[in-house]
């Protein structure tokens, strides 16, 4: 049973997308959300229209899931690139 659990963890680790962008790279005030002002520090050419696309929930902020989705969709580049 223990080997199966370890195997499952390894599969999950390697199956997850390996993006280097993290919320802490962009979230300057530590609230676990990224505002348009915060994201434009690292992405100065990002328009408000693209930020609105990134902000899938429409709350005016991007969370880590929305940032990951934005990288996957090609809306922003992974900061490691």
Quick recap of the structure?
This protein has a single domain, classed as Orthogonal Bundle (Recoverin, domain 1), CATH 1.10.238.10. The chain is 52% helix and 0% strand. The protein has helices at residues 2-15, 23-26, 36-42, 48-54, 64-73.
Explain the layout of strands and helices:
Blueprint: H1 2-15, H2 23-26, H3 36-42, H4 48-54, H5 64-73
SS content category: mainly alpha
CATH topology: Recoverin, domain 1
Based on the coordinates given, report the CATH architecture.
Answer: Orthogonal Bundle
The overall strand count is 0
Range of strand content: under 5%
Q: First CA to last CA: what distance?
A: 39 Å
Show unreliable segments.
4-17
Work out the count of structural domains.
1
Shape: globular
Give the topology string: H per helix, E per strand: HHHHH
Q: What's the Cα radius of gyration?
A: 15 Å
Q: Mind telling me the CATH class?
A: Mainly Alpha
Mean pLDDT value:
82
Helix content range:
40-55%
CATH superfamily assignment?
Answer: EF-hand
Largest sheet, if any? none
- The number of helical elements comes to 5
Polypeptide structure, described:
The chain has 81 residues and is an all-alpha fold. The chain has one domain: EF-hand (Recoverin, domain 1), CATH 1.10.238.10. Helix content is 52%, strand content 0%. The chain is built from five helices and no strands. It has helices spanning 2-15, 23-26, 36-42, 48-54, 64-73. The longest helix has 14 residues, at 2-15. It is globular and about 50 Å long. The N and C termini lie far apart (39 Å).
């Amino acid at each position: 049973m223990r080997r199966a659990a370890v195997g499952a963890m390894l599969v999950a680790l390697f199956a997850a997308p390996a993006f280097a962008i993290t919320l802490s790279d962009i979230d300057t005030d530590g609230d676990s959300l990224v505002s348009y002002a915060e994201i434009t520090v690292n992405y100065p050419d990002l328009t408000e229209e693209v930020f609105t696309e990134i902000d899938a929930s429409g709350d005016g902020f991007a969370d880590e899931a929305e940032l990951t989705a934005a990288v996957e969709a090609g809306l922003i580049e992974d900061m490691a690139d």
